[in-house]
């Protein structure tokens, strides 16, 4: 069983306690992150059999890995094909599933508790989106978590509204789509009130809103301090809109400057989100809190590429403790000062490299012990 730095045996409860305490710290060092990352790797290696087999094939074990960058990353598509959980799934009360818009399967992330996920989300959200406001009136352009209990985005947005929204905040989506008359009335009220207003939701929901406002020839000038959060892309649910045109349209139609139009980058297979500081220039620089690190790698070798060169993003998320904390995505990116730039889905050689990485993972994880 993994041991802590004091030599005591780690349990799920002690890991959760250590993570919650680490998130609350205002100052941490690379050594602090490395120590906790190695403890989590040892825990996941012991309790997540498919991951342990893969790590052994790569010659990576808790005895040989001394630095968090050496922890083997699981291809993100593995979440569709294998059960990646340290606790038996029959005991798991919370399961988030991917939308299933690509491929045939749905990736699953298993959460024995949402205490870590929620702490990760709220600390980060308050720092990166709320901009010092304890609460804001909000319109949520996505279903409530009670309607989509297996959606990590529904949980994220509902939590944002409950913990950071004022009592008059509303979910502006029903079974038929956006509640457009109610949403337009809320925008009119917000504009007249002079109080900052927040709109949060899937990127494609904002496209539907922009199209309807254009059809009705409506524009708003939301009060200073108002802000917009979009996430998740378009997923075939709306027309595709280039980032420059998208954020310019939000500014022109809703009166929210592009500096206050924040894109959240997250995924079901993680428990931590990344944010930018507005979209005045696209692509913006994204970054996360101190409990997540990002690398840009060559997917064929797993080696880091030099800063400024394009590769595939790997995220090491300590908050994703019950599954696998190191994830090889299918997103292209480049490391820059202050974080990374997200360049879209991988293509060409990088896409082939991701496919080969997945084949390698499945071959190892499904092999006999």
Automatic annotation (TrEMBL):
The keyword Ligase applies. GO terms for molecular function: ligase activity. Keywords: Ligase. The keyword Ligase applies. Pfam families: LuxE (PF04443). InterPro entries: ANL_N_sf, LuxE. The lineage of its organism: Bacteria, Pseudomonadati, Pseudomonadota, Gammaproteobacteria, Enterobacterales. Residues 25-360 form the Acyl-protein synthetase LuxE domain. This is Long-chain fatty acid--CoA ligase. It comes from Pantoea dispersa. Signal peptide: none annotated. Gene3D superfamilies: N-terminal domain of ligase-like. SUPFAM superfamilies: Acetyl-CoA synthetase-like.
